[in-house]
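Whiteboard transcription, Tuesday session. T.W. wrote the C-alpha cells on the left side:
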C-alpha cells in the first residue's frame, strides 16, 4: 500500500465547512487515511464483545428512537438477574471475549441498585472482561434517581466493577437539535460534564455523533469541535464512532419525512470527522449501523476499528437496521485483510 506523506494543520470550523462543500470525496479519503496511518499504521482493530440491552421501557420518549416503549406495552422487556446470568453463561464460552457493552433505556421504576447489581454480576461472572456500560444519558438519569452527583454515581459503579462508558447519547451536541430529537434527554452540557468527570476518574470512554436528521452541517462541525476541545482538556476519549440516523419506525422520521443518509455522505462525514478530530487516536466503523460493505470501505476513509462481534443487539435492530446483529471473528479479519490492513485483536485492558 502506498505510504502517504501529508502535513496536517488543525482545521478551523471554516476550513471544515470548506472541505465539506468542496465535496471532493477522494481527496478527503486520501487525507483521512494518511491521518489514520499516522496514528495506527497499518493496524485495524476489532474486538470480541457482547452487547446487552437491559430494557427497552423508557421514560424519555425521544422522537429519534425506535427502540423505546412505554411501561405496559407488550413489546416491552426488562432483563432480570436470571436472564442476565444466562447471557453471561453464553459469554463465558466465547473465545477471546474482551468486552461486555451495556446500553439501555431509562426505565421509569428500576432503582439505581438494579444497575449496580448488574455490574457486580458481570464482574463476578467475567472477572477480567472490560465492562463498558451506561451512556452519559443513563448516568444523568442515575443522578436524578438518587440525588447523587455525577462523580458519586460513577464512583459507586467503578467500585462495582465498571471500566468505561460507551459514547452514545451524544447525538448532536446542540441544544437546538436536542430540543427536537430528544427533548427530555441529558443536555449537551450534561453529556460533556459526565465525560469530563469520567476522564478525571480514569474511566475509558468513547465519543459519538448521530447525524442525518434535523441538524445543519454547521452543527455537525460544532459538535466535532466541542469533542475536540474536551479531548484537548482531558485526553480521555479512546475512540470516536459516528453513525447515521435510521428514520424507520421513528416519530422523528415520520414528522420530518427524513430519508436515510447515502453512502457518499456517510463516507464524506467520516473522513471529515477524522480530520477535525486530530486528537482522537481511534475511529470505529460501526458496521451494524453503516452496513458491512460501507464499514469496510470506511477503512479507506480514516476508520481504524471495525467495531465488534457484538452478539445480540436490539437498539439498532429496532431502528430498522438490515444488518444481522452478530459476526464472526474470521469474517471481520477477512474484511480487514481485503482492505489491505492488518487485523489486530483488542485485548481486555488495552486500547490499541
Ligand atoms: S433514545 Fe434512549 S433515552 Fe431516548 S427514548 Fe430511546 S432509549 Fe429512551
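and on the right, the sequence the group agreed on:
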Amino acid at each position: 500500500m502506498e505510504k502517504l506523506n501529508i502535513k496536517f494543520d488543525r482545521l478551523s470550523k471554516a476550513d471544515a465547512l470548506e472541505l465539506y462543500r468542496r465535496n471532493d470525496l477522494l481527496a478527503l479519503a486520501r487525507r483521512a487515511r494518511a491521518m489514520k496511518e499516522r496514528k495506527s499504521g497499518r493496524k485495524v482493530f476489532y474486538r470480541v464483545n457482547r452487547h446487552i440491552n437491559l430494557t427497552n421501557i423508557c421514560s424519555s420518549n425521544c422522537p429519534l428512537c425506535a427502540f423505546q416503549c412505554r411501561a405496559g406495552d407488550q413489546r416491552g422487556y426488562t432483563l432480570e438477574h436470571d436472564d442476565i446470568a444466562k447471557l453471561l453463561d453464553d459469554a463465558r464460552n466465547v473465545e477471546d471475549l474482551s468486552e461486555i457493552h451495556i446500553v439501555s433505556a431509562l426505565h421509569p421504576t428500576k432503582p439505581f441498585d438494579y444497575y449496580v447489581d448488574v455490574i457486580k454480576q458481570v464482574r463476578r461472572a467475567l472477572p477480567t472482561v472490560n465492562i463498558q456500560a451506561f451512556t452519559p444519558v443513563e448516568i444523568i438519569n442515575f443522578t436524578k434517581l438518587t440525588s447523587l452527583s455525577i462523580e458519586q454515581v460513577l464512583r459507586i459503579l467503578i467500585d462495582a466493577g465498571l471500566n468505561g462508558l460507551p459514547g452514545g447519547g451524544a447525538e448532536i451536541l446542540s441544544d437546538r437539535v436536542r430540543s427536537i430529537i430528544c427533548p427530555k434527554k441529558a443536555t449537551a452540557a450534561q453529556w460533556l460534564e459526565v465525560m469530563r468527570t469520567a476522564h478525571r476518574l480514569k474511566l475509558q470512554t468513547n465519543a459519538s455523533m448521530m447525524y442525518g436528521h434535523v441538524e445543519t452541517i454547521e452543527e455537525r462541525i460544532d459538535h466535532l469541535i466541542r469533542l475536540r476541545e474536551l479531548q484537548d482538556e482531558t485526553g480521555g476519549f479512546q475512540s470516536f464512532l459516528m453513525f447515521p440516523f435510521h428514520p424507520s419506525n421513528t416519530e422523528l422520521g415520520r414528522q420530518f419525512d427524513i430519508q436515510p443518509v447515502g453512502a457518499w455522505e456517510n463516507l464524506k462525514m467520516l473522513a471529515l470527522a477524522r480530520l477535525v478530530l486530530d486528537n482522537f487516536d481511534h475511529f470505529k466503523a460501526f458496521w451494524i449501523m453503516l452496513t458491512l460493505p460501507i464499514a469496510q470501505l470506511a477503512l479507506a476513509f480514516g476508520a481504524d476499528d471495525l467495531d465488534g462481534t457484538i452478539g445480540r443487539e436490539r437498539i439498532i435492530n429496532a431502528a430498522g437496521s438490515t444488518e444481522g446483529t452478530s459476526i464472526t471473528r474470521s469474517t471481520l479479519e477477512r474484511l480487514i485483510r481485503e482492505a489491505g490492513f492488518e487485523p489486530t485483536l483488542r485485548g481486555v485492558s488495552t486500547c490499541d
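Someone added at the bottom: The chain has a mean pLDDT of 92.
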